Amino acid sequence: MAIVKIKKISAITLKQDLKTITKALQRLGAVEISKSKMEESTEEEQSRFAGEIEVLEQRLQDLNFVLGIIKRYDHTKTSFFAPKPLVGLSDFENQEENIQKAQQIIDTSKEIEGEISKLKHQITKLNTVMQQIRPFERLEVPLEQLKPTAHMAYELGFVPLASWERVEKICHECDDLLEVEKLGSQEDIEAVLVMMHQSVRDKAFLALKEEGFIEARFDRFSGTCREQLNNLESQINQCGQKVEELEKQAAQFAESKQMLQLLYEYTENELDKWKASSLFGARDATYMINGYIKEHDASKVEQLFQKELEGRYYLEFSDPAEDEDIPTALENPKLIQPFEAVTDMYSVPNPRGLDPNKVMAPFYFLFFGMMLSDAGYGVVMSIGCTILLFIKKPSGMMKKIITLLAICGISTVIWGILFGGWFGFSVPPLMFNPMDEPINMLILCLGLGAIHIVAGLIVGAYMNIRRGQVWDAIFDQGFWILVFVSIPFFVLPGLSTVGMVLVIISVVGLLCTQGRHKKGIVKKVVGGLASLYDVTSYLSDVLSYCRIFGLALATSVIAMVFNTISEMLTGSWIGYIFAAAVFLIGHIFNIAINALGSYVHTSRLQYIEFFNKFYEGGGRAFKPLGIRLKNFRMENK
Questions:
Q1: Which 3-state string (H, E, C) describes 253-295?
Q2: Which of 86, 269, 557, 634 has its CA 20 to 30 A from that of 604?
Q3: pLDDT of residue 534
Q4: CB atoms < 10 A from the CB of 15, how many?
């Protein structure tokens, strides 16, 4: 339906026109480049492409590094609703001056980041030393005075608290020639100063070691421990101040953020261009360009070659081979394009298959609205998403999803009016209130589900007929369609016989045809009988549409709960304030959570109950060489 026919393009150009034609093709954005055979490509030529690609990849890495620094140190806030800035094509392509500016910023940022890293490492080391000295803070003797003398030896260290009694015993055994002074405990250890006469040093030291004594060496320090701690703290503060100064310098790069982002995207596009060029086939003086285009773009491509190369080329269009791996190009009306987001999350359609979006979109529209089913919520969602589209001006998948929600908000309004739901308050419905008449709601959900499944079977039959498999369409889809068609006749008065006849025809047809691919009469009969088991599968599919009722009920009940809580809080001016807050926050939460649920479960109904009847995925999206922007919008491409 909306899958565009693909043509294969083959062109030969002079090597001197490489930059001209790749730039023109990227501007046009209509040709997907595919790999050509490098028949006579020289090693020098291959290294040229590799070199250009390596330079661009390195620039991207450097720019990403700088933008990461800006993100880390720049605390200026950007509004989520701010639109992407516009950029003209000529400004986008003229980036030589920005490349030089960016290189200066890159070099400076690397120096700054290196200094910051060194300073933070130094701070870590100083903090580690402080942790080692702090337990001895109470020691008032300068550390240089603890050097051994002719008669005395001194040691600083730690003793386990559990060993303290044994340490005292060792001191007693040394006849007061050994003294261990407590300086302060930490958890289960005690910082101590050990003073001992040289005559008992070896014996006492060995005994203390056996009790878990651990030495603490401060040979390179002088002054008291308190003085050392003050000195270390001062050094840490100095390093911290330098880090803050450097971070402020790094934050100043934010002034160049937009320029750097623009250069980043320009470099990405240049990289795409050179990677595409590396796929060209090479001869002595020419390049061979192969690729794919949409059939209706052939004239545009031909005009481009004529304009840019003035006859210095050969160009040919042809149909791809039947088994050739071609991309899938979709073109849908603007109203259908947002629903492509649902299909894209599932799988890209097979290029020789069928685009399901036109068939799927009406059902998605219906089911989403039924699940959310509150007219007030629909108004808020449609207006909110429309404003977001107008202000934010998103692109790509984000634009599709927001537009999809805006469209489905209209469906929600319609179903909310039919069901009589406005922000959880019941008003006279045009059809019926699901909470008052659950059976009618259930019948409606199952009925629409059956129609949805039949639509999938009809599309599957169409696919078989298009492939010339008319009998397969009748046998594999036709008889099951007949089963679903017979159901209303059992409900309508006086027509149950017609329904029974249709069911009998369907059953007989399935019994006689579903084993047709098997060999032997027995296997054919068994295959036909086994096919009737699919009734349970179709019944399960239909029952899946009960989730529509469940989601609709959840939306209404949660809304009513918040309304009830708000009403209970009224009675005083403070109560009215809290009631308004509960009402507002509660309904915003309900819209968000149930809109998400409606999106997920409506998508599930398409993926599992609908697509499996006909959908052929496994394609790859058509990605022509073109200018792609993430943070900017092209003013005039």
A1: HHHHHHHHHHHHHHHHHHHHHHHHHCCCEECCCEEEEEEEEEH
A2: 557
A3: 64
A4: 13
Q: Decide the pairing of beta strands 313-318 and 6-14.
A: antiparallel
258 and 91 in contact (C-beta within 8 Å)?
Answer: no
Give the rounded percent of residues in the chain with a pLDDT score beyond 70. 93
Give the H/E segment covering residue 516: none
Spatial contact of 371 and 405, defined as CB atoms under 8 Å apart: no
Strand duo 281-282 + 214-215: pairing: unpaired
Between CA 618 and CA 626, with CA 624 as vertex, the angle to 5 degrees is 145
The 3-class secondary structure across 204-256, one letter per residue, is HHHHHHHCCCEECCCCCCCCCHHHHHHHHHHHHHHHHHHHHHHHHHHHHHHHH
- Using only C-alpha atoms, the chain has a radius of gyration, in whole angstroms, of 39
Place 400 in a pLDDT band, splitting at 50, 70 and 90. very high
Q: What is the mean pLDDT of the chain?
A: 85
Which residues are CB-neighbours of 85 under 8 A, at least 6 positions away?
A: 258, 631, 632, 633
CA distance 196 to 284: 91
Q: How buried is 510 (Cβ within 10 angstroms: 0-12 exposed, 13-18 middle, 19+ buried)?
A: buried
CA 390, 391, 395, 399 torsion-angle sign = negative
Q: Mean pLDDT throughout 173-196?
A: 82
394: tokens are: 């998103």
Q: What is the reported pLDDT for 606? A: 92
297 phi/psi in degrees, rounded to 5: -95, 0
3-state SS, one letter per residue, for 367-435: HHHHHHCCHHHHHHHHHHHHHHHHHHCCCHHHHHHHHHHHHHHHHHHHHHHHHCEECCEECCCCCCCCC
Q: Is 74 helix (H, G, I), strand (E, B) or coil?
A: coil
More confident residue, 5 or 143: 5
Phi-psi region of 35 (alpha: psi -120 to 50; beta: other; left: phi over 0): beta
- Does 75 score more than 80 pLDDT? no
Q: What is the pLDDT of residue 321?
A: 86
CB 150 within 8 A of CB 198: yes
Of 4-8, 421-425, 535-539, the least confident = 535-539
**Helix, strand, or coil here: 159?**
strand
- Burial of 187 from C-beta contacts in 10 A (0-12 / 13-18 / 19+): exposed
Confidence of residue 382 (pLDDT cuts 50, 70, 90): very high
- Mapped to the 3 state alphabet, what secondary structure does 168-200 carry? HHHHHHCCCCEEEEEEEEECCEEEEEEEEEHHH
How many H helices and E strands in the chain?
Answer: 21, 13
Higher per-residue pLDDT: 109 or 474: 109
C-alpha distances in angstroms, 365 versus 206, 274, 349? 85, 43, 21
Whether the pLDDT of residue 369 is over 70: the answer is yes
60 vs 491, higher pLDDT: 60
**Alpha-carbon distance 126 to 233, whole Å?**
8
In terms of phi and psi (left: phi > 0; alpha: psi -120 to 50; beta: otherwise), the region of 520 is left
Residue of 86, 42, 79, 51 lying closest to 636 (CA atoms): 86
